[in-house]
């Protein structure tokens, strides 16, 4: 087990280095000069040159990367060009807002979709199976931004059950904060359920065809005991991997939902920073999301032996 953990940790290190280089390089392809943008259209070339020197943009790219990476290792992500705030506290506070939504979405979608997928596999080719697979396919086909707008229209404007736009921190007002998060959470849960239902069904079908399931049935065990005590644990391994991928994808791709529902999360901060050409904040957001994705998948790999002990022996 220790060897397995060390191998996964060592594999994560080059990924983090590659992510850092990629993030730094991609930012440089964004058109526009941050110094000129900060000073405005009336700025003189001398003022722009002085600002570029102050921001370190006059140095070569390798020098800029070495300075930036050395600062990042020390926890210094720089300061925002737009509002002169430290980047790390700004990104961390917005990340917590996004994490509130993402963690609840993954938990709810898993609790609903995984049992549904297992039941669909158990009742293969029945009306229940066809209904669940058809529903999952439809849910996968609906774009999240369009679904979010439909839910806003129906529950917010037509029925007036939920607030349409805005955000209230759960820490300051639990009831109000939850009301503002219902629609974005519902939107993402509905979409992610489609992925999990299909994955849980496919992995359960594969396990149900194995010899030890036939042996368990031959011993006289009930179908529910065979399904939940013997098949579910081994079938959950691949589904657990998909849950980790969904968690990472949501952390990086929640910008659309945060824009639709005006949630001040990490995705919304990234979009605003791109429009403002705020290099340090964009780099901080991308690096934070990328490292979160790597960390989530590392945790998934480390916990995978709990569902499939054969992995440790490899």
Descriptive notes:
The termini are close together. The mean pLDDT is 80. The chain is globular. The protein is built from 13 helices and no strands. The chain is mainly α and 314 residues long. The chain has helices at residues 2-27, 34-39, 45-55, 61-73, 87-122, 127-141, 144-158, 174-208, 211-218, 223-253, 255-260, 266-276, 279-303. It is 76% helix and 0% strand.
Top keywords for this entry?
mainly alpha, 13 helices, 76% helix, globular
List the helices and strands and how they pair.
Elements: H1 2-27, H2 34-39, H3 45-55, H4 61-73, H5 87-122, H6 127-141, H7 144-158, H8 174-208, H9 211-218, H10 223-253, H11 255-260, H12 266-276, H13 279-303
Please provide a brief summary of the model.
The protein has helices at residues 2-27, 34-39, 45-55, 61-73, 87-122, 127-141, 144-158, 174-208, 211-218, 223-253, 255-260, 266-276, 279-303. By secondary structure, it is an all-alpha fold.
Counting DSSP H or I runs of 4 or more residues, the number of helices is: 13
Q: What is the beta-strand fraction? A: under 5%
List unreliable stretches of 5+ residues: none
Q: What best-fitting shape do the alpha-carbon axes yield?
A: globular
Oligomer: single chain
Structural class: mainly alpha
Strand tally is 0
Give the overall average pLDDT. Answer: 80
First and last CA, distance: 10 Å
Helix percentage: over 70%
Main beta-sheet annotation: none
User: How would you spell out the order of helices and strands?
Assistant: HHHHHHHHHHHHH
């Amino acid at each position: 087990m220790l060897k397995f953990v060390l191998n996964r940790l060592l594999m994560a290190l080059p990924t983090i280095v590659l992510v850092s280089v990629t993030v730094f390089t991609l930012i440089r392809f964004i058109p526009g000069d941050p110094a000129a943008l900060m000073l405005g259209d009336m700025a003189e070339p001398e003022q722009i040159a002085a600002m570029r020197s102050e921001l370190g943009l006059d140095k070569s790219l390798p020098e800029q990367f070495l300075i930036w990476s050395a600062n990042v290792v020390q926890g210094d992500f720089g300061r925002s060009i737009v509002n002169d705030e430290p980047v790390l506290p700004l990104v961390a506070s917005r990340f917590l807002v996004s994490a509130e939504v993402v963690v609840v979405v993954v938990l709810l979608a898993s609790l609903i979709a995984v049992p549904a997928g297992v039941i669909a596999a158990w009742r293969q080719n029945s009306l229940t199976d066809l209904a669940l697979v058809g529903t999952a396919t439809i849910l996968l086909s609906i774009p999240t931004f369009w679904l979010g707008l439909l839910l806003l229209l129906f529950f917010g404007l037509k029925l007036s059950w939920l607030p349409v736009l805005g955000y209230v921190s759960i820490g300051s007002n639990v009831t109000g904060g939850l009301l503002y998060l219902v629609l974005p959470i519902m939107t993402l849960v509905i979409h992610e359920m489609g992925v999990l239902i299909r994955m849980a069904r496919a992995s359960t079908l594969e396990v149900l065809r194995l010899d030890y399931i036939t042996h368990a049935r031959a011993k006289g065990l009930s179908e529910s005991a065979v399904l939940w005590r013997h098949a579910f644990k081994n079938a959950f391994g691949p589904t657990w991997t998909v849950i980790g991928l969904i968690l990472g994808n949501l952390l990086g791709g929640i910008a659309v939902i945060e824009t639709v529902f005006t949630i001040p999360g990490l995705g919304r901060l990234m979009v605003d920073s791109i429009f403002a050409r705020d290099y340090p904040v964009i780099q901080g957001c991308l690096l934070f999301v990328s490292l979160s994705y790597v960390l989530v998948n590392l945790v998934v790999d480390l916990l995978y032996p709990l569902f499939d002990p054969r992995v440790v022996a490899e």
